[in-house]
Amino acid sequence: MDEEDCFIAYRELEQILYEFNLEWVAEQVAQTIREGKNLEENEGINRTEEYSAQEQLLLLINAVEQAVVNNVEIAAEISRFLSVHELIPEIRFYPSDERGEELFVFAPGQIEERLSSARQLGDFLNNLRFEVEF
C-alpha cells in the first residue's frame, strides 16, 4: 500500500471505531502519533520523528487487535476455566469512569459468538497488516 492508501485505510478504520463506540482506541493511537516515535541517539539524547502513514495504520491495526480481538479471546479462556471448575461461567465488566455506561456481560453463549466474530476481525486485520507491510 502506498502512503495515500494507508491514509485512507486509517481514516476508514478510525470511522468504524467511532461507529462501534471504540473511539477511545482511535484517540489513544492518535495521541501516540502526535507524540511521535522516540529515537534514542548517542549519549542518551532523545529526539522524536513523525510516524509514516504506513506506521500510523499499523499502530491502529495493532491497537484494534489488542482492544477487541485479544480481549474477547481472554474472556473466552476465562469463561472456559470457570466452567471447567464448575463456577458461574459469566464475566461482568463495569465501567471504570463516571460516564454512566451500562454493565457489559460476557455470558457463555455470547462469548462463543463474539469469539467467532473476533477471529474474523483478526483475520481481516492480519490481511490488512500484510497489505501495509508489502
Report on the structure:
With 134 residues, the chain is mainly alpha-helical. 66% of the residues lie in helices and 10% in strands. The strands form 2 sheets. Strands 1-2 form a two-stranded antiparallel ribbon. It has a two-stranded antiparallel sheet with strand order 3-4.
Give a quick set of tags describing it.
single chain, about 130 residues, mainly alpha, two-stranded antiparallel ribbon, about 65% helix
Write the layout of secondary structure elements.
Elements: H1 3-19, H2 23-35, E1 37-40, E2 46-49, H3 53-84, E3 91-93, E4 104-106, H4 108-133
Antiparallel strand pairs: 1-2, 3-4
Helix pairs in contact: 1-2, 1-3, 2-3, 3-4
DSSP summary, beta strand count: 4
Structural class: mainly alpha
What sequence of helices (H) and strands (E) makes up the elements? HHEEHEEH
Helix content: 55-70%
Short characterization:
This protein is mainly alpha-helical and 134 residues long. It is 66% helix and 10% strand.
